[in-house]
Every structure is written in C-alpha cells, then in structure tokens.
Write a structure and sequence with these properties.
With 297 residues, this protein is α+β, with helices and mostly antiparallel strands. Helix content is 40%, strand content 22%.
C-alpha cells in the first residue's frame, strides 16, 4: 500500500504559494504534486481537505494572484454578495484598470476598464466592485437575459435600488455601454424570486409581450388566495414556472392546492417547465399570446 502523502501542519487547512512551501522546506516539488494538495491557480495550492468553493478561489486570487488595483468583479463579485451561484470549477472574473498590464492567468477571466474609487469596496475581506458597478459590468459582459437575472437578485436583496440604477444609466448617455445598461436596468424587477423566473420574464418581454407583474397576490374579499409568479392582472392571465423543486411531491402538492383556489376566479394559469423553457419556448409563447388575446377581446 502506498504511503499517505505528507501534510505538514503549517499547510493544513490553508491556501498557499507552492514555491514558498518548497523554498521553506515544507514540501518537495513531488510532494506538492501529490493528492494532498489541490492547485487553484499557477503556484497557488489548497489543502485538498478544504471545501473549495468559488469564494475560496476569489479569496485566493485576491490574496495571492492579483496585483494592487485589480479587483474581483462581475459574476464572481455577485456570487460573493449571494446574488448568484457559481461552480467552483468556473473561472473568477476580475477587473483591471485601464492602462494597467495584467494577465492572462489560467483560472481568471480578465476584463479591462476604467475604475473609480467609488466602484471598489471590500466584502468578506475581499476587494470587489460595488453592487452598482457589478450591474454595469454584467450588462456589458453577459447576455441580457443572464445579466438581468443577477441584477434582479441584487435588487431583491436590497443591494441596489432600481430607480437610482436606471437614473444613473441614463445620466451616462454617451459612455461606452450605456445603452446595454439602460436596457438591463429597465428590464430588472426586484420582485422576482428566482433566477429561472427572471430569465422567463425577460424572454417573454423581449419577445414583445407586455411586461407582467411579478409575485402577484390574488385575494377574495380581502383574504389571500394565491401568489402567482407572473401575472397580467387586468386580463386575469398568469404564468407559473415549474422548476426542479417540483421533484419534491410535497412542494408540488402545495403549489397545486394553492392554484386550485383560483377555480371560480376566472383566471387562466399557464405552466411552463424547465424542459419546455429550454426546448419549446416558442410553443409556450404562442399559447401565452393566445391566452392574452382571448382576454383582450
């Protein structure tokens, strides 16, 4: 049986520079390549017994890879604020000030742009762009649907306010990327409660359908009946997104019981699954348009 890899106490539970560990005599180059250690970036390693998350990678990059002035940004910064989730294997977004040379670095996506002092803060002891700057960068770097979904989460968590965000976007008319920021800000909705619902709403609106109300509450004589993901209340048409959580029989039961309360209230409720959203959105869109037309006559 092969011997277990050597794990010096000074390196256990830590992220460290491999070259320094070798120079200090803690490990040999061969030991550094053993299963005891996990490479994160060039010359940056972690104890393999650590749980490696995207935050771990962001912190390691900020501490051991990034030069002064370069900060965590975009989706990575949003993930640190809890506005999105990123798999540990995905690269870290960083923003480099215009005129500063840095990169490329394996494991990082390097973006270059002007950075004001007001655009940078520290969160979880990591230098990151502010939520407002995150929104601007997402609008430039991501497809509209994906950018809006993250801005929705930032707004839902009260990390950005949409009215000032929209005003700020329009105040920067003429700046590079301002049109994309205006579009994303106008499409964002703090009422959205999940990323799939945000993407569904944005795709519906970009298809030319009037903007729905998010999380609309239906009442009867002042008593709560149901809350709908997306609704056109004046037409009594709604859309419910059936996501992966409906694999839970109890959740499915609760949702269907909630919607059954609308029987007799003259609502049309359309359902769309994750599979249909991916594979037959056009077919669903035809059904939605037909439902809206039927109530507009």
């Amino acid at each position: 049986m092969p011997a277990s890899p050597r794990r010096p106490a000074r390196l256990q539970g830590r992220v460290f520079r491999g070259s320094l560990a070798v120079a200090d005599g803690l490990l040999t180059p061969a030991e550094l390549r053993s299963s005891a250690w996990r490479p994160l970036f060039r010359d940056v390693y972690a104890d393999a017994q650590l749980e490696i998350t995207h935050r771990t990678r962001c912190a390691a990059a900020a501490q051991l890879v990034l030069p002064p002035g370069v900060v965590i940004a975009g989706r990575s910064a949003a993930a640190l604020y809890g506005a999105t989730t990123i798999d540990r294997s995905e690269p870290v977004d960083v923003l480099v000030p215009t005129g500063q040379r840095f990169g490329p670095v394996s494991g990082l996506v390097v973006h270059v742009g002007a950075i004001d002092d007001a655009d940078v803060t520290r969160h979880q002891d990591i230098p990151v762009t502010t939520p407002t700057r995150i929104c601007w960068d997402l609008a430039q770097w991501l497809p509209t649907e994906e950018a809006v979904a993250i801005v929705d989460r930032l707004a839902h968590q009260h990390l950005v306010a949409l009215a000032p965000l929209r005003a700020n976007a329009r105040a920067r008319i003429g700046h590079r990327g301002w049109r994309r920021m205006v579009r994303v800000a106008d499409l964002a909705d703090a009422g959205s409660e999940s990323t799939p619902e945000s993407r569904l709403r944005v795709r519906i609106v970009l298809a030319g359908v009037p903007t729905p109300v998010t999380q609309f509450v239906v009442e009867r004589e002042g008593r709560f009946l149901a809350r709908l993901d997306l609704a056109w209340p004046h037409l009594k048409v709604a859309v419910e997104y059936d996501g992966l959580w409906h694999d839970d029989p109890e959740q499915f039961h609760r949702d269907r019981r909630r919607l059954n309360r609308l029987v007799g209230e003259d609502w049309i409720v359309l359902h769309i699954t994750a599979k249909r959203f991916r594979e037959d959105f056009d077919g669903f869109l035809d059904e939605l348009r037909q439902a809206l037309r039927s109530r507009s006559r």
